[in-house]
Amino acid sequence: MFFGSDNTGPAHPQIMQALAEANTGYATPYGADPLMEEVRTRLREIFEAPEAAVYLVATGTAANCLGLATLCPPTHTVFCSPNAHIHVDECNAPEFYTGGAKLTLVGQEDKITPEALHDAIEGEEVRGVHGPQRGPVSLTQATEFGQTYSVAEVAALCSVARDYGLPVQMDGARFANALVTANCTPAEMTWRAGVDVLSFGGTKNGCMGVEAVVLFDPAKAWEFELRRKRGAQLFSKHRYLSAQMAAYLRDDLWLSNARSANANMARLAEGLRQVPGARFAYEPAVNIAFVTLPRAVLQRLKAEGAVFNVWTGNLDKGDPEEPLLTRFVTDWSLPEAEIDRFLSLLTT
Amino acid sequence: MFFGSDNTGPAHPQIMQALAEANTGYATPYGADPLMEEVRTRLREIFEAPEAAVYLVATGTAANCLGLATLCPPTHTVFCSPNAHIHVDECNAPEFYTGGAKLTLVGQEDKITPEALHDAIEGEEVRGVHGPQRGPVSLTQATEFGQTYSVAEVAALCSVARDYGLPVQMDGARFANALVTANCTPAEMTWRAGVDVLSFGGTKNGCMGVEAVVLFDPAKAWEFELRRKRGAQLFSKHRYLSAQMAAYLRDDLWLSNARSANANMARLAEGLRQVPGARFAYEPAVNIAFVTLPRAVLQRLKAEGAVFNVWTGNLDKGDPEEPLLTRFVTDWSLPEAEIDRFLSLLTT
Amino acid sequence: MFFGSDNTGPAHPQIMQALAEANTGYATPYGADPLMEEVRTRLREIFEAPEAAVYLVATGTAANCLGLATLCPPTHTVFCSPNAHIHVDECNAPEFYTGGAKLTLVGQEDKITPEALHDAIEGEEVRGVHGPQRGPVSLTQATEFGQTYSVAEVAALCSVARDYGLPVQMDGARFANALVTANCTPAEMTWRAGVDVLSFGGTKNGCMGVEAVVLFDPAKAWEFELRRKRGAQLFSKHRYLSAQMAAYLRDDLWLSNARSANANMARLAEGLRQVPGARFAYEPAVNIAFVTLPRAVLQRLKAEGAVFNVWTGNLDKGDPEEPLLTRFVTDWSLPEAEIDRFLSLLTT
Amino acid sequence: MFFGSDNTGPAHPQIMQALAEANTGYATPYGADPLMEEVRTRLREIFEAPEAAVYLVATGTAANCLGLATLCPPTHTVFCSPNAHIHVDECNAPEFYTGGAKLTLVGQEDKITPEALHDAIEGEEVRGVHGPQRGPVSLTQATEFGQTYSVAEVAALCSVARDYGLPVQMDGARFANALVTANCTPAEMTWRAGVDVLSFGGTKNGCMGVEAVVLFDPAKAWEFELRRKRGAQLFSKHRYLSAQMAAYLRDDLWLSNARSANANMARLAEGLRQVPGARFAYEPAVNIAFVTLPRAVLQRLKAEGAVFNVWTGNLDKGDPEEPLLTRFVTDWSLPEAEIDRFLSLLTT
């Protein structure tokens, strides 16, 4: 009954199989391996972007920060949600990789609205050379709180960015989860809507540790390569990144894993919804739910072995009825029986 | 007949096996997995350093730069060989990770001598606040040109550093190769001789992609952890780093792989030595040889399928007798038959 | 009728006189001049801090950023007001000088409250190594909107910081203006209340271009010196910084200038208060007023030659009665006749 | 008898006069003052470069580093002399301002030769993405050891740079001294020969503290302005920088001061040449001489009150006949009587 995070589950067997298959003989290092060629070709097909530059790195933070660094000079500011991973969960890595750019928090909600984005952009650069300059907009798709932007929403936000000549980066650590919810093509979700650079996550969705960065405009491809090397993110035995991503894309494993993860959450959510006092912070659109539950319920679940994260407040101590905001995450690997058992505990 | 580099070979079957075994169920992310506990315990034993802080990252550049960044303020300079990987092969990553420290090249030889180190240190900080301040000394063990420092040599260099109160970092991307040559204990090669921080390589010696950083003095352990995270080098699914390193240390796989790689080079070198006109830049102490061979010989070897790197000059064009400096690297995985075939070509 | 800013007025005649007097013969460069000795001694007396390290730089941004850089590792965050000069008016200089630290905005008000500070600090570092770490608190005294913190308020804020082991930096670009309002000693306003590092402004209060940085704890003095040099902020002909600051401190010129500037604002504010529709954003405590005035009034004042900054909205176009937030700043040099004339215009 | 440095002398009376004249009433801050307009116009005339972007900062290090930062991405390397101020005397400020670029030392001589430059450039970027990329070439005119590059030499070096598509920066902290020696126009010495960005020194040649940066190609002007602000190098009371530079350019004060300084050195050198055992490291082309003199001679000079810098060795202790390399610098302000007295001491 593990709902702690989607970075704690195993790698999918097809990923492991691909690694084993890749492990024969010699392979050209640093991304010149044949599997990387397959990855590049396949991602360009998937995104209908034959010119796109495609790179692999091993962590989501690396993907985001390298992408942003090619878009944001150090005198500029990145517009992002207050909940954005780049703001709260990367220990100043974006500031590091950009050489000291700022992050401007847009609004106070999890999802950025065009109005809030407009206001945030208007609020910067009002002092000429004195303040930070307007830089890229970063969207998290899906958000850290399990919401998604529809294609229309992405397009509306990109449109605001374009009005100011600002590029758009998408943190897609859970891009697959968002996509299968949105019922659209990868191209529609990204460059057709106005996204310039995408972090295309693999790690949370069945890989061991690999993320792609897709630069839809390849003009900064070489700068990206230099920054990747300088960031100590260029793998010598690159074939093991390539093999993961290649397997992830074959047979639409990335989509089926995401569908499993989301479906697992849908079942979980249905059960949680029945708990008296349960209240969802947001309707879970992907594989994440934030829900407030009475402390006593959470204590009982924990005692039975369920793993989850209490977001605010102290699980162990206090009024049994007090509602505590709690995060549940489901990945593709969650055994059905575990969900069943968890659901049965809820109705006890 | 692949002698191109030790980062192009496969991972050892025991490494792959360990990854497969690690791939079950959930595991706490970010280095709190049980396999990491095994790694930490084992490395402390191996180095007889029960207090040492031990971390894993995925690239040698990350290991070096994070280690150096904890030792070198941005106003200081790192003393290293002109051939050091941190200087020639990391695209300014040390400057990036330290926040802009300088690298001072020590002497003009591959191996640093105590005299050259003394002179280089004396040459800096002669202008008070105006010049860069003296920072850590970085030793490459084994060197990029296949030499090693004996324990006495490491100690002598550390002694010079200590005279000036400077810490010592060791780039041990090929530490195992150096150690099996040196006939000493890991502790003797490092902290007993005066080394403060070690990059302990795995990738080039049979792993898929993992390096340990060992801080013999754990005082900066927390700073290291923050810098690793900020550097986008903290893996969520950390168990796959741990599993590699754990398997690498079990049954002394790291030592047996290194012995194989070195032995392969010994055989290769013996053969190369017979070629009329062959001249070794340095006596190969580990698994790397730099040797000058006549162009015609190299052309013939290449035509037969041998892979190696011509270091200076144009292989394809010029006087057949002109000697060209060429690098040969052997890894543990090199099939005996390939070496035999190569050797037979030499004597043709 | 110039109320545009206190950085547009002339230098005080005594400052100019001191520069002229300093301009004879040779003087040891880089801060080893005798006038710097006078400055150091005098500032230590004024602040009753015989151990304090004292340095001069030429811009307020340099003073703030060098001070903060000695207090804030690049993995940490600085807590400051949303209106802080370091956040809105330094084009990412704090991020640059700290090597990529973050700024966390405290509350939504101009002045930081202990509650808001407590909440902001609690909001950070909840994710261990993943988020930015808690770093220094920065207070602006007086604030950019013309308010001051009382000694008790400074002490209360420092007390919150101390509860978390965080150092406190004070941006005192207008420290003199705040001090003469507060009726306390410089020591009470700073280190006795818990301030660790002070930017002690001169430029806005009658100097040509000089700011002191006072490190009440000299432990990081040498690091400051290195960072100052590396920041290209160490002056070779340093005597001209020293001479300004020495004259500024002699005969309490700094206090009398600040009293003049504040008194000028008091007169101005009294007049502005009489204007129908005038509303002060804050009661002006120093030499700055933010007041909303009807567009028509502002247009008339401008037409008569008054210079001021309309903070929000378009002066030239719109409803004559619409109130526009406007900034007025008075410096020590403002001729009495100009204020009289301005006041007479108000009552026309 | 002060020959310590040209940054220890006073400002020229015309500079002080200009400051006094500028010190009336209000002036628009941050470089929008009318005197800056004069400076811009005048420098464009002087350099026959009507499109050039012109900026003022207060230190030579700031001028160099901001100029280089607009030319050198953080993944690149700057080619410079081993004696370059940016390498030995700026405490890693170039690394700081560029965001971590490297400095590659060209040859082992004070002056860079086209051959050495060619070799140094060829030596970098041989490893594709792995090593630092080739960045700007920095020339010091005049050099730290008192030599100058002729127009032909500058052109030859720029030609090598252009062959590789690399921009050229000139550190002209002593540009005026070099120019009056070279008998050419400012344009010939700079952009006509291929220089892209110039640090045009004022401080060492009679100003209080001001340097111009001239971007002959204004394409990066706005980037420069942002970097200047972010570097805390934008002065609010900018008129005092403008006033210095305006006076420096009026009536060719910059040239006459440089001629005086050089002439003073010529007289000094003539005298030094007579001393038995004297040997010049380089023929002094400007206002700096490096000469070896017997210890006993130096001791006697010092005892009589002469101030100079012994570059290598211990003045106080050792064989009286041992020759010590010593630096003498003359500025424009050196009283004739002091030189006479010094010369008379030499012949005693």
Short description:
4 copies of one chain form a homotetramer. Chain A is α/β, with parallel strands linked by helices. In chain A, 41% of the residues lie in helices and 16% in strands.
Name the features.
16% strand, 7-stranded mixed β-sheet, 348 residues, 4-stranded antiparallel β-sheet, Aspartate Aminotransferase, domain 2
Structure characterization notes:
Four copies of one chain form a homotetramer. Chain A is an alpha/beta fold and 348 residues long. Chain A is 41% helix and 16% strand. Chain A has 14 helices and eleven strands. In chain A, helix 8 (175-182) crosses helix 12 (253-273). Chains A and B meet through helix 1, helix 3, helix 5 and helix 10 of A and helix 1, helix 3, helix 5 and helix 10 of B.
List the helices and strands and how they pair.
Four copies of one chain form a homotetramer.
Chain A: H1 13-22, H2 34-46, E1 53-57, H3 60-71, E2 76-80, H4 85-88, H5 93-98, E3 102-105, H6 114-123, E4 133-140, H7 151-163, E5 168-172, H8 175-182, H9 186-189, E6 197-201, E7 211-215, H10 221-230, H11 239-249, H12 253-273, E8 279-280, E9 288-294, H13 295-303, E10 309-310, E11 323-329, H14 336-347
Parallel strand pairs in A: 2-3, 2-4, 4-5, 5-6
Antiparallel strand pairs in A: 1-7, 6-7, 8-9, 9-11, 10-11
Helix pairs in contact in A: 1-11, 2-11, 3-10, 6-7, 8-12, 12-14
